[in-house]
């Protein structure tokens, strides 16, 4: 890591992320809140707040985007958010007689709050590191953030899931730069609060197949547009870095 590496920004980001996570899961500060959906969001809000504070304080040049390099916001919103809500909600309605719309949207928003930090901010700060080193660092920071340090087999499995999730979601972000897209992938496991069984695994497989297929199709069809978008983004970042180089 060279002298220009944003140590201060990373420290601020992670300290804030840990602080809000600790309040949510290790204290009783939110015990008076009866809304379970709000509690879910509060438990995952730290990475987003940490990212925004770090960007503001250190003037790190970063352009967080919901749509990324897609043509408009509607497309990733429908594919990565609307589609899973309709699919999982419809299956739930057939099997259980209920359509958990609010829960599904809350899970997606929770994923978005986390992904603003882990991919939108942290992955961008580690982008010049060797790929494996970046994945391992993000995995460790992500694991520690959950504040669950029990030496159990389930925790080891969870660490492995985070490692492959960091690699896979990171690939999605590098391909789309869309926070809506990575929030969708992040939420795959969180959609199913009662564990993963036959139906749940089939739904995950269907979503993954549709999403990956869509991404490959879109990249092939609009490759030139995506390349122009990335060039413009790099030029904007280079300009911002020159203007703020004294603050980093």
TrEMBL record:
Residues 99-192 form the CAAX prenyl protease 2/Lysostaphin resistance protein A-like domain. GO terms for molecular function: endopeptidase activity. GO terms for biological process: CAAX-box protein maturation; proteolysis. The chain crosses the membrane at residues 7-25, 37-58, 70-93, 99-117, 129-145, 151-169, 198-218. InterPro entries: MmRce1-like (IPR042150), Rce1/LyrA-like_dom (IPR003675). Keywords: Hydrolase, Membrane, Protease, Transmembrane, Transmembrane helix. This is Membrane protease YdiL (CAAX protease family).
């Amino acid at each position: 890591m060279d002298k220009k590496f944003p140590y201060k920004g990373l420290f601020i980001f992670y300290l804030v992320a840990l602080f809000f996570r600790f309040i949510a899961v290790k204290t009783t500060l939110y015990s008076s809140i009866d809304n379970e959906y709000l509690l879910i969001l509060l438990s995952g809000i730290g990475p987003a707040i940490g990212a925004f504070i770090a960007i503001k304080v250190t003037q790190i040049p970063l352009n967080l985007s919901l749509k990324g390099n897609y043509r408009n916001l509607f497309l990733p919103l429908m594919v990565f958010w609307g589609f899973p809500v309709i699919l999982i909600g419809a299956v739930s309605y057939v099997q259980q007689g209920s359509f958990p719309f609010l829960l599904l949207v809350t899970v997606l928003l929770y994923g978005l709050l986390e992904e603003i930090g882990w991919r939108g901010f942290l992955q961008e700060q580690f982008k010049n590191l060797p790929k494996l080193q970046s994945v391992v660092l993000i995995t460790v920071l992500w694991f520690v953030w959950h504040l669950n340090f029990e030496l159990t087999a389930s925790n080891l499995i969870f660490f492995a899931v985070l490692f492959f999730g960091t690699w896979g979601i990171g690939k999605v972000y590098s391909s789309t730069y869309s926070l809506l897209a990575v929030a969708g992938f992040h939420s795959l496991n969180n959609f199913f609060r009662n564990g993963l069984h036959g139906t749940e695994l089939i739904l995950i497989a269907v979503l993954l197949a549709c999403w990956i297929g869509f991404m490959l199709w879109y990249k092939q069809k609009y490759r030139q547009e995506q390349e122009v978008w990335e060039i413009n983004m790099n030029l904007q970042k280079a300009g911002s870095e020159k203007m703020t180089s004294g603050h980093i």
